[in-house]
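Changelog-adjacent note: as of this version, every example in the card shows the full chain rather than a window. The one below runs 257 residues end to end.
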Amino acid sequence: MIGNPNARSLLPIVLLCIPSFGHAGSVVDSPASPGSTAASVFVQSDIERARSRSWDLSVEEWQRYRSLMQGIRGSVSPPTLSPIEVLGIHARDESERRRYAERWARVMREDAERILAFQRAYDEAARRLYAGEPLIDLTQLPIRSTPTERMSRTDRILLFVSPDCVTCDALVTQVLSRIERVGGVDLFLSGVPGDDDAAVRVWAAERGIRAEWVSSQKVTLNHDRGTLARVAPGEASLPVLLRRRGNQITPITRADL
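Full-length structure tokens:
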């Protein structure tokens, strides 16, 4: 530059042509004075200024909210989290936390009132515009078939058990408690010699099976003698619970009783 008479006059022009790269709503560094460090300046755009006013937040509060959302809060929370909630979650003391909590409570109360007011207006409009017309025409809905009744009064329960079986005894008790709701109960006892009717009668008496049930055939006492293998092949683990409806025999569960 030595010997160039125009050097001084060009310097101001060059500086004026440098564009500004500070983004709206961002933090930029201000020029540092000799002997000092650079200072951060928050530049708030018109849009963000309007947003902060809508939340009734000062420039400092908005700057802190923006800073928090650029950290872990913005990583773990949805972007729809309100500025008041962010500031309240990261309150620096109990007084600040209470202040933001009260502000958020007022905001939510006012919003609920607006929603309810609109709902009332909608209900009134629907009555006025569509008086007497149902919102859903039930006749156009597909007809659902009625589920088959699990047990009817004409069904007979077939129960295959063995002596000294705690699970079998519990199921016998449950089946007998529903004896008035079905046509009858046919009990088949395994593990007893096929000619030992006395053992079957003793077993039945110990389980509270009444003599009148047996005499009226509301309950029948039977030796298995391979019946289970014929009506339910593959069912080897006792107890086994079946339902006889007409000529059809199907497996059922305790929930069907």
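Structural remarks: The CA atoms of residues 212 and 232 lie 29 Å apart.
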